[in-house]
Amino acid sequence: MRVHIAICYGLTGVLNAVWGATLPATDARLDLGVGRLGVLLMALAVGALVAMPIAGRVADRWDGRRLLGWTLRAAAPAPLLVALAPSGEVLIAAAMGFGVLSGGLNVALSLQAVAVERALGRPVMGGMHGTWTLGAVLGGALATAGLRLGLGVQLVLVLFAGVLVVAGFAITRNLPTPADQHGADRHGAGADSGERPGGDPSAGARPGWQPSGDERQMGLVVGLGLVGAAAFLTEGAATDWAGVHATRVLGADPAVGSLVYTAFFVAMTVVRFVGDPVRARLGATATIRYAGATATAGYGLVLLSSVIETARVGTAMAGWILAGAGMAVVWPVVVSALGASGASGRRLSMVTTISYGGGLVGPALIGAVAGQAGLPVALLIPGVLAVVVAGAAPVVLARCLVAGDRAAEGGSRGGGSDAEGCDETGRPPAWVRGRSM
């Protein structure tokens, strides 16, 4: 099960990278211009944000594995639609549809990754996102190579669509359940765990996390969503503005600016793969506290590089590396802890929607502030948000897990809580709670 879901993450990374890497060539082919490019990207974002909460409800009522299979298979031919689009208007419509499928796919991947963690009894979310990153790097590199070889953007897109369709159908044809991987859940009899067919993380969810309209728990959902939004905005600030900061503010040449961006991306990828063992040892709250502190130190160095006279580029690069290392684990920790605490698919999709919304708003917000006050001032925004992640995220995360504990206690009094992924008391496992809980 773990390998299957990891491959799905990798294919999704390839799909997203191909879209982004070929967009300039598609722009040239259709003569989109800045205005229509903006509308295109907005259509993609709106489609994703509309689909995410719907996907959570579908997963709760339907089957998480079927949702993943359907969305991945439907999204795989998306490059073909881009290749065949005869005009910018048709491409914008296709982008809206691709956004809808991408939003549903992101939710389905998170749900199934949570199910894998429950079955294994240890964190793997960081590695899953690391696989997505590797897929994105591979897809972007191959798309760039194809364009440089003169294949033409339409042919490149058609070739990728063919590969993704075949791979998507092959990997989702018979997705196993976590019980298939282990023969039974960690409590022994998989049939008694309350798990739905398909390994949905909402299966067996504790009563306190079922959709009940409880304002306190809705506040926790919003709080976790805001933590995710802060993380995505902080991460997006680096991916969109690190190279620009190096060239326009620090005076580096374009090659060095590209290197700064690459250093950030490499740091994030490495930490995502090594972050799971760290989280297994420290627990979610301590991990996210250290992650936020690391990112804060990184942005401190980036801001410092704008005012010092010597070693400016080296200071900024060190800062972006620390920012990438810190932000790498925040979103995986949030999703993993939310799922392990027994949240339904609807709750998880709500957190995802709020979080991705922050990632979409962030680059535009930073650009607007940079236009008025300069990029160094604008980068104060992600710097402050990194401080917020370090200080507030552990508190929100701890309250989420405490709410899960209380629900588990209520379930025990009423006959026991048997939510998969919990320990024998019905509480989230030790690697989620951390040593202090």
UniProtKB/TrEMBL annotation:
The chain crosses the membrane at residues 36-55, 91-114, 151-171, 218-238, 258-275, 287-308, 320-341, 353-371, 377-397. InterPro entries: MFS (IPR011701), MFS_trans_sf (IPR036259), MFS_Transporter (IPR051788). It is a multi-pass membrane protein. One of its GO terms (molecular function) is transmembrane transporter activity. Gene3D superfamilies: MFS general substrate transporter like domains. One of its GO terms (cellular component) is membrane. Residues 182-198 have a biased composition (Basic and acidic residues). Residues 180-212, 407-437 are annotated as: Disordered. It is found in: Membrane. Coiled coil: none annotated. It comes from the Bacteria. Its main location: membrane. Keywords: Membrane, Transmembrane, Transmembrane helix. This is MFS family permease. It comes from Kribbella italica. The lineage of its organism: Bacteria, Bacillati, Actinomycetota, Actinomycetes, Propionibacteriales.
